[in-house]
Amino acid sequence: MRTWSDVAEVQPLASRIITNSIMKNRISHAYLIQGERGTGKEEIATLLAKYLFCENINGTEPCQQCNACKRIASGNHPDVHWIEPDGLSIKKDQIDQLQKEFSYSGLESNRKVYIIKDADTLTANAANRILKFLEEPSKETTAIMLTENGQSIISTIRSRCQIIDLQPLNSQLFERQLIESGISAGSARLFSALTNNFDEAVGLNQDEWFAQARKLMVQLIEMFSTKPADAFLFIHNSWLSHFKERHQLEQGLDLLLLAFKDILYYHMGNEGAMVVFTSDNAKLEKASMVFSQEKLLSILHTILQAKRKLKQNVHPALVMEQLTLQIQR
User: Fold this and answer.
1) Rounded mean pLDDT of 17-30?
2) Which fold has domain 4-165?
3) How far apart are CA 33 and CA 39, in angstroms?
4) Would you report the helix, strand and coil content of the chain in percent, each value rounded to 5?
5) Does pTM surpass 0.85?
6) Which of 219, 246, 247, 212 is nearest to 235 (CA)?
7) CA dihedral 133, 139, 141, 146 (to 10 degrees)
8) 61 pairs with which residues across the strands?
9) Domains 4-165 and 207-328 share a fold
C-alpha cells in the first residue's frame, strides 16, 4: 500500500480518518493502530511518516520519490525511529535510548516520529516511560503504536492516543489470490488462516522452516492421540528447539489452534471449514476418536490462554509445558 487510495481499498475507515486529519491539519501527536496480522499496520505507519517528512507533498499523498520518502521506505531515515521487541518484550532500556535520541535536535528538521511494533509487549517500566512522552507531547513529535491486541495496552496510554481500528480482511478473496499466484489450494487455505499479508504467505510457502513446523505440529497432534505420555519429551526434544523465537512459537500455537479446530469441525460434520487436515486424513480420524467435543473446546481455550501468557512474557518453555499437561488431562 503506497498511497492513501491503496489503503482505502483495504481499510476505508482508517484511510478516511487519517486523510481527514491531514486535510484539516489536525494530525494527532499519538496513534494506536490495532488490527490482526496482515491488516496493514506497518504500511499505514510508514505512509503517515512519509507524509510528515515528504519534500513534495501532493495533497494528502507523499510523493514516494524524494530523498525522505525513499529513506523512510528503506528504514534509514535518521528522524524516524522503529522500536520492536528485544526477544519477548520491549524493554525500559530501549525506551531510555529512544528518549536520549529525542533529547537531541532532529538531524534534518525538528520533527521526529517513533513507531512501536507489538506495543502490547511493552514491559511495565517501558510503558511508564512511553507514558511520559505522551503526557508532554511536542508539536514536532508523532508516536505511532502498532498492536494486534489493543486491549493489552494500559488504559493511560490508550486514552492519550487516537485509536485506529483495522478491519479483518476477506480471507476467501485472499485465498483465491494465493491460488492464482501458483500456491496449492490446501496451502492457500492454511496461509489465509494464518495471515492476510500476500508477501508473508508467499514467503511461508517457500520457507523450509515453516514446512518443518507443519510436520512437527502434525507429529504433536498424533502423539497426543496415540502416545500422550511421550508428548512432554517431544516438546523439549523437538518443539522448543525448532520454535526458538517468540514469533515462531506464536506461529506454532496458531498451527495447533487450527489443527484442533479441524478435529472439532470433523466431529461436527463440518469438514468444509478445515484448513490443516483433509477429511480422509487418517491422523484426523484417530484424533477425533480420542478427543470429545467438550475436551476439544477446552483445548482450544487452553491454547488461547497459552498465547496470552506468551504475550505477557511468561517463559516459552513453561508455556508449552503447562499447555502439554493441560491437554494430557
Assistant:
1) 94
2) Rossmann fold (3.40.50)
3) 10
4) 60, 10, 30
5) no
6) 219
7) 80
8) 58
9) no
